[in-house]
Amino acid sequence: MNKNIETPKETESFEFPEESSQIVAQLLEKYGLQKAQEEGVKKFVELIESRIPKGRNEIFENLPGTKISQLIREYAEGGLILEKLPNLLKEKLAIPEKEAQKLANDLEGKLLNQIKPAAPAPPPEKMEHPQKPDTYREPVE
To answer: pLDDT of 70-109, one tens digit each?
Structure first.
């Protein structure tokens, strides 16, 4: 087995409310991020239609909706605490602190409280193997 290859971490399952994407879309509109979302999606579609693969992932990763969705997923996986959400929204979306706080409050009230975060995975237990006498060697005194 190659030790340089990482296996995906198992996470507990969690469920998102069905209306999650609509909630994110409403929040994009409410906080003036919809235009940036639409422009990014338009560029993304143009690259797909022109069959130019370079830059697609970068455009997609920088969409405001993608950034918010990544934070929601991180919260659901147990890797993000709510107290850090406003700061992360401010940094990732380049919005003022007050707007970031309001957006965080809206996300919490409309979406995040409906998601049950996964508990962090417990550390793997070490299996103790009892030492068996080595029948091929003489005991060392």
So the answer is: 999 898 888 888 999 999 999 999 999 999 999 999 999 9
**Residue 16 to residue 139: CA distance in whole angstroms:** 61
Distance CA 6, CA 71 (A): 23
Q: What are phi and psi of 114, to 5 degrees?
A: -90, -10
Tally the C-alpha atoms within 13 A of residue 36's C-alpha that lie toward its C-beta: 19
CA–CA separation, 27 and 17 (whole Å): 15
Q: What does pTM read for this prediction?
A: 0.69
Domain boundaries, the chain: 20-114
Burial 94-116 (b: 16+ CB within 10 A, else e): ebeeebbbbbbebbeebbbeebe
At how many degrees (to 10) do helices 85-93 and 64-76 cross?
160
Number of Cβ within a 10 Å radius of residue 64: 23
* DSSP state for residue 4 in the 8-state scheme: T
Instruction: Give the integer Cα–Cα distance in Å for 83 and 141.
Output: 61
- Give CA angle at 75 (73, 79), nearest 5°: 105
